[in-house]
Amino acid sequence: MFTRLRLDKAFKNARILPFNDSSKFILFSDCHRGDNSFADDFANNRNIYFHALKHYYNHGFVYCELGDGDELWENLTFESIFAAHQNIFLLMKKFYDEDRLHIIYGNHDMVYKNRSYVEKHLYSYFEPKTGKTKPLFEGISIDESIILEHTESKQQLFLVHGHQADWWNYTFWRWGRFLVRVLWKPLQVFGIADPTSPAKNYKELVKVEKRFKKWIARNSNQLTIAGHTHRPRFPKPGDPAFFNDGSCVHPRSIIGLEIENGSICLIKWYIEITDEGFLQIVRTILEGPTKLALYKT
Questions:
Q1: How buried is 22 (Cβ within 10 angstroms: 0-12 exposed, 13-18 middle, 19+ buried)?
Q2: Segments of the chain with pLDDT less than 50
Q3: Would you state the pLDDT for residue 218?
Q4: pTM to 2 decimals?
């Protein structure tokens, strides 16, 4: 019941972005960008992520980040994350300056729900070399949810992080943040996972997915795209239209969803070794592309 109320509220209050068959979107979530310490899961994939994001920038894609982009449970401040991954944020700034960046907050960066926090930490950054403050995401609005609405068919794609279907991480996220900072972050260095995270607890993961599918069924098979569980989902037309874009902290790879030419596909970027022994970053399609129009409500 409470999942339904939370998702109903997120859907009702979602920011609407128009799109058409010529629009191009890349959807990533759960980057969990950290401070480049041993507990920073993102650090292992940052070169893959940077290369992929540069590809999407050069090819005219709009970047939608579906929550937990920054790891603000383990880390006290955004500034430490920015310092560790400045090149990535400056690339994201290029997207933003061209109105091609849209960010949704998740449970690990729920502080972005606070407008004053965003204004203080994300609008600008301090450049030590010049001793001056420079604009970063000046004026940015970070939302709980977004609806992509097709200008002709009026089909709607509901984008949300997914913690709305996880009562602990939605309601008690402050307790979760406290436990991660004082307990799980030190243990993570030794390989002990946080059992409250659906990404590391299979039973919780399945519960979250079932709650989403139940809400989707109640809402005429509303096409929904989420993250949170880190498990990629790509339904066939006719099945409950629940997509999950995976995460950017999979071992040695990042997974996301592309929308292009009125179709959607699940993609993976990873490092491959050539026959000559060189390392290269490559993209492969895991599922699709499938026409969005086939997922009828």
A1: exposed
A2: 196
A3: 93
A4: 0.91
Could you report the per-residue pLDDT of 151-197, keeping only the tens digit for each? Answer: 999 999 999 999 998 766 666 556 666 677 666 656 555 555 555 45
Round to the nearest angstrom and report the end-to-end CA distance of the chain: 22
pLDDT for res 241:
96
One-letter amino acid at 198 equals P
How would you write the chain as a 3-class SS string?
CHHHHHHHHHHHCCEEEEECCCCEEEEECCCCECCCCCCCHHHHHHHHHHHHHHHHHHCCCEEEEECCCECCCCCCCHHHHHHHCHHHHHHHHHHHHCCCEEEECCCCCHHHHCHHHHHHHCCEEEECCCCEEEECCCCCCCECEEEEEECCCCCEEEEECCHHHCHHHHHCHHHHHHHHHHHHHHHHCCCCCCCCCCCCCHHHHHHHHHHHHHHHHHCCCCCEEECCCCCCECCCECECCEEECCCCCECCEEEEEEEECCEEEEEEEEEEECCCCCEEEEEEEEEEEEEHHHCCC
What per-residue confidence (pLDDT) applies to 196? 47
Say what the pLDDT of residue 267 is.
98
Any idea which residue has 């009026």 for tokens?
154
